[in-house]
Amino acid sequence: MAQMNMKEAIRDAMRVELKRDPNVLVFGEDVGKVGGVFRATEGLQGEFGDTRVFDTPLAESAIGGLAVGLGTQGFRPIAEIQFVGFIFEALDQMFVQAARMRYRSGGRYHSPIVFRTPFGGGVKAAELHTDALEGLAIQTPGIKVVIPSNPYDAKGLLISAIRDNDPVFFMEHLNLYHAFRDEVPENDYTVPIGKAKVVREGKDVTIVAYGLMVHTALKAAEELEKAGVQAEVIDLRSLVPLDIDTILASIQKTNRAIVVQEAQKSAGAAAEIIAQINEKAILHLEAPVLRCAPPDTVYPFAQIEDAWLPNPARIVKTVNQVLQF
Amino acid sequence: MSKISMEAPAAKTGAAPHVVYANDVAPLRVLSPEGEVVSPEHLPELTDDQLKEIMYRMVFTRTWDERAINLGRQGRLGFYAPVSGQEATMVGSEYALTKEDFICPGYRDMPQLVWHGLPLYQAFLYSRGHQHGGQIPEGVNVLMPQIIIGAQILHATGIGMGFKLKNEKRVAITYTGDGGSSEGDFYEGLNFAGAFKLPVIYFVQNNGYAITTPYAKQTAAQSIAHKALAAGIRGVQVDGMDVLAVISAVREAAEIARNGGGATLIEGLTYRFKPHSMADDTTKYRTKEEEAEWSEKDPLVRFGKYLAKKGLWTDEDTARVKEEAKNAVNEHIKKAEQTEKMTVPGLIDSMFEHTPPHLEEQKADFQ
Question: Which residue in the set A62, A72, A103 is minimally distant from B189, CB to CB?
Fold first, then answer.
């Protein structure tokens, strides 16, 4: 086993799949020689050649459309959208053309595409580089949404996504690329899409999170433990499909829950999760399920992003609200 | 890599060397309106049987179009975009390709799909809002009609890249209109095809109007063919009422593409005789004079005159094909009407390869 950070694990997943399947392609802006602005694809062009791993002109809609076209011809494109805000230029190709290909053709064609994009706050990036746009994707039928929180999962989930015959929006948190290293097998393995993981067991309250917020929630859980509260933390790993069963099993034990998200509060993943909890577990609840999320504003300029994003203290505060209800 | 040169090119005819000029373009024409061959060097090589087959398809398409409009009025078809007037660009461009070549259509381009192998009843099912309409049979190299103007341009670009990566001597062709050439996806597609030297033909059927907006309000470009210049690909303009000119231009573009020469943008100058869809009134945005002027350029009339002079086509042939087309339309609309209806559970199962648990659960509400 090797020690890898999340970026290296993501790169390793692409390497494994490029080697295993000649139909896998990697392309996007600056992904070739340099290996992307975060070097996630570094070395892949050298190893697999510039017909498998290549730079495109600077046009996100065309990157998406190229992937859709190639997908109809037996290729498995991994299309990188350089920063999350640039998906707005590619929304039709990602969320309409790729997501509806199977339905529109009655299964004759499909879109075995992974749209990789870095996202996530706390790194003082330029505007529109860090927004959490998963809410747009989860409201889009026909596309899966995967957000890993650690190197091991990132590699296993990305391999699953590349092998998936449906499009996957694979969101990589900027703050996790280099955050820490994990034991990651160098060979191929998969982590199934649609299975959440209990990353900390507890009996008093459930904290549902994904991406970087899993780590923020774990920090909050440590704080809570000092006050005698045992929080259970769930890492969703994917939002579509959503592993509601793992959430429900936890709530049956804790009877109280909050959902943490980096995206603005309204109409996002947390709202959907709470709706499903209401549908399936209302009688197990001792308190309303609350959201710990930023306000419904645009993502702020760098000066105030730390104040805007959920942090352990705000998670503790939200947990205390459901405990004291 | 070549170095960027700061040297001015040799100035031509006194033009300022730092200003880019575009030359005038005149459409390629093979047949005059009277059906005389005006540029024999561009006359495509076609046997008598092939010439008759092309006319057969054009007459069939015209009749199908007229019948489809009636079926729409009767409520037996849903959304339908009329094609009369554009038979030369539609039938001719498809005829110039091989069955291995791939078509990415806009929504008006049903004739190309049907002549490429999509059964007519499936075209009707598409119009009726049935998923089987887009279930393209194996071996028929087309995508379903595209509704988002321009999205298909990028799919053809990707498919062309796929052919190039697999070293297949195949060509992707995509269609849009004059309005579609204003879309960002149009420019992105052309630019990608230029940068990657892809085997793609971008066919713009310039019928003068994007629904109601005339060409003059659509663009200040001298022609749509000129838009190829910025992408560094070939640009060609063709008389879109002249089926032989269309075949000549598409064959040439396909030949170049197959042999590694890259993409061509073809602008076909044509006219839609009927409304944009079943819902608009052409008298509000087109003059009677203009419509009359274009109806004199009818592609069926022009090609019919050429064939008549060669002794290959008579009015009886036209009548016979019309009858055949009417019968085919009747047969296929019945087949479409008799096709089992879609179901919501069927829709749910077509979202993903493996239906995830939440959708399985939602499916139960409809069973």
Answer: A62
Residues in chain B: 367
Contact B352 A66 (CB under 8 A): no
Give pLDDT tens digits for B235-274. Answer: 999 999 999 999 999 999 999 999 999 999 999 999 999 9
- Segment 149-168 of chain A within 8 Å of chain B by CB: 164-166
pLDDT at B333 over 50: yes
- Chain B interface disruption, residue of A52, A55, A104, most B CBs within 10 A: A104
C-alpha distance from B343 to closest chain A C-alpha (Å): 12
Provide the mean pLDDT of chain A: 97
Query: Which chain B residues touch A65 with a CB distance below 8 Å?
Result: 151, 153-155, 157-158, 185, 188-189
Chain-chain contact of A65 with B165 (C-beta, under 8 angstroms): no
Total-model pTM = 0.97
d(CA B209, CA B294): 13
pLDDT beyond 80 at A211: yes
Q: Which of B122, B138, B188 to mutate to test the interface with A (most CBs of A within 10 A)?
A: B188
Contact B106, B180 (CB under 8 A): yes
Question: Any CB–CB contact under 8 A between A244 and chain B?
Answer: yes
Q: Which two tokens stand for residue B31?
A: 């047949």
Query: Which DSSP state fits A283?
Result: G
CB within 8 Å: A240 and B356: yes
Closest CA relative to residue B22, chosen from B224, B187, B199: B224
| ipTM, interface predicted TM-score of the complex | 0.97
A60-117 pLDDT per residue, tens: 999 999 999 999 999 999 999 999 999 999 999 999 999 999 999 999 999 999 999 9
CA A229 to chain centre: 28
Chain B interface includes A105 (CB < 8 A): yes
pLDDT digits (tens, 9 = 90+) for B166-178: 999 999 999 999 9
Instruction: Give contacts of B180 with chain A, Cβ < 8 Å.
Output: none
Report the pLDDT value the prediction gives residue B1, as an integer from 0 to 100: 42
- In terms of C-beta density within 10 A (0-12 exposed, 13-18 middle, 19 or more buried), how is residue B17 classed? exposed
Residue (of B261, B258, B250) closest to B194 by Cα position: B261
Residue for token digits 């052409």? B282
CA distance B78 to A209: 46
What pLDDT, in 10s, does the model give residues A2-11?
999 999 999 9
Enumerate residues 6+ apart whose C-beta is below 8 A from A145.
Answer: A134, A137, A138, A168, A169, A171, A238, A239, A240
Rounded distance, CA B238 to CA B266, Å?
Answer: 7
Chain B residue with Cα closest to A165? B353
Quick one: which of B257, B259, B186 has its CA closest to B228?
B186
User: Which residue, among B118, B161, B200, would best test binding to A if mutated, counting the most A CBs under 10 Å from its CB?
Assistant: B161
For residue A306, the tally of other CB atoms under 10 A from its CB is 12
- Residue B69: CB atoms within 10 A of its CB come to 17
Q: Model confidence over A269-319: pLDDT tens digits?
A: 999 999 999 999 999 999 999 999 999 999 999 999 999 999 999 999 999
| Fold observed for domain B40-342 | Rossmann fold (3.40.50)
- Taking an 8 Å cut-off on Cβ atoms, the answer to whether A69 and B160 are in contact is yes
| Short-list B75, B23, B68, B93, CA closest to B238 | B93
Domain boundaries, chain B: 40-342
